[in-house]
Amino acid sequence: MAKKKAKITKERKSLLKKADYDKLHQTAYELVVIQGHDQKEVSKTLNLTEQTLSKWSTEGKWREQREARQQCSSTDADNTKKLLRLLSTQRLELEESISISIKDGNKEEEARLRKQASSLSDEMSKINKTLQSLDKKNYTLGVYIDVMDEIFSALRGHDEDIWNKTIDFQALHIRKVTNQIG
């Protein structure tokens, strides 16, 4: 069966135009690297063999790129915000339970829930401080400009017409970042 599916996929590849094949490859990349979906799931979704997706992943070093995305500060900040939202939801649920305990006159339950709420509030405070430190820019203006120069130099080498169209953008963007970073 696996051979039959591979054969169908090879036939499919030969039927696809290069642009369509490239679009399929880019979609797989987007789903696996950017959105974090499982390769097996993506192969089924896009009607590709797992071998094809594995080959693309290996050649393009998708695993390394995915890990790098997961370890960047913006992802850390997003994950911290999600955690803070979950804790906030739990804290609100505790407040509702405290109100019910008060109505029921259950002092022991109220005290237990208030202790939990206090502990949760402390944890939320610590996480909020962590979030504030993650939101700060962890790079200098010089590093940012060096990276931008590399990107736009590569763009110029790839397509000078596109690069020429970005010159005004480059100047405006660097001014904006200079004002933000200092």
DSSP helix fraction: over 70%
Principal-axes shape call: flat
**SS field, number of helical segments:** 10
Give the number of DSSP strands.
Answer: 0
* Uncertain regions spanning at least 5 consecutive residues: 1-8
Distance between the termini: 61 Å
* Count of domains: 3
| Rg value | 25 Å
Question: Mean pLDDT across all residues, rounded?
Answer: 83
Task: Give the percentage of residues in beta strands.
Answer: under 5%
H/E topology pattern: HHHHHHHHHH
Major sheet details: none
Judged by helices, strands and strand pairing, the structural class is mainly alpha
Write the layout of secondary structure elements.
Blueprint: H1 2-15, H2 18-34, H3 39-45, H4 50-60, H5 62-70, H6 73-104, H7 107-135, H8 141-158, H9 160-165, H10 167-181
